[in-house]
Amino acid sequence: MPADRTQLGAFLRSRRDSLTPADVGLRAFPGPRRVPGLRKEELAVLAGVSPDYYSRLEQGRQANISRGVLDSLATALRLDDVERAHLFALAAPSNRPKPSTAAVQQADPGLLRLMTVLDHMPALVLGRRGDVLATNTLLTSVLTGLRPSSSFPRFMFFDPLARERIVNWEHFAAASVAALRGELGRHPDDRRLVALIDELCSQDADAARWWADHRVQDYASAAKRILHPIVGDLSFDIETVTPPRASDQVLVVYTAQPDSETAQKLPFLASWSVREPAGR
After folding, report:
1. Architecture category of domain 5-90 in CATH
2. 169-186 vs 81-90: helix axis angle to the nearest 10?
3. Do domains 5-90 and 109-273 have the same CATH topology?
């Protein structure tokens, strides 16, 4: 049996509800519509399965799902690569190896070396559950609250500095929730991850709202705007690197165009950061 058929059904429903027949080039089936999204029968036609089979999927009553059916569903629902991977993770069998959550995470040595080479750009290494495993000096100058042993999701929702400095905070806070959604699909038995999600959703209404929409994504090629108290506006693109031997870790690099105002401000920020007082 799969790890969590309830989550699989909820994800399918959320993606089905987000599409209309017009979105997928389908003539709407006749009869009254209670919601604007696709009907189960319409999605079943698009995916090439019977309505009864698809209903069993959403209800958590279908024990085995072939890769071909998952591919057809992903195509019919217009899933991107991250969403497609999440769909497959939710449908994975429950006998997959359970990861250890007790051991202290250590930053991958290769990512640390790469972060050192990129010390002219803000960078950090994130591990399981968004734990911050390493940061460079520029990163802690840009976002003071992010330091090794801190939690990126908790920083985003519980540290006032995040909302103060990140101009497009909502975009990145929602993305952090969507990233946790994807991680839970890969590691449904991680009790610390479940506790973190419960903490965020119970203490922050935005986190609860974003969790309920079942979005899943990563941080690659995102844009981030920072309002720094010393150098003013900073505009970054976010790029990520994941090593094959440590797939639950990612190096996050805040990049800037070579001739941009942000790139010109970074050397000053680097020299100033060594004098920055503790706190803010």
Report:
1. Orthogonal Bundle (1.10)
2. 40
3. no
**What tokens were used for 24?**
């997928």
**184-201 per-position pLDDT tens digit:** 998 988 999 999 999 999
Phi, psi of 167 (to 5 degrees): -65, -45
Question: pLDDT tens digits, residue range 110-119?
Answer: 999 999 999 8
Query: What is the CA angle 259-250-111, rounded to 5?
Result: 80
pLDDT tens digit sequence for 24-72? 887 777 777 777 788 888 899 999 999 999 998 888 777 788 899 999 9
83's tokens: 């969403």
CB atoms within 10 A of CB 192: 13
Domain boundaries, the chain: 5-90, 109-273
Each as own residue / partner, the long-range contacts of residues 149-155 (CB below 8 Å, 24 or more positions apart, any chain) are: 151/196, 152/126, 152/176, 153/129, 153/177, 153/180, 153/196, 153/200, 154/196, 154/199, 154/200
Q: How far apart are CA 227 and CA 129, in angstroms?
A: 26
Report, at the CATH architecture level, how domain 109-273 is classified: 2-Layer Sandwich (3.30)
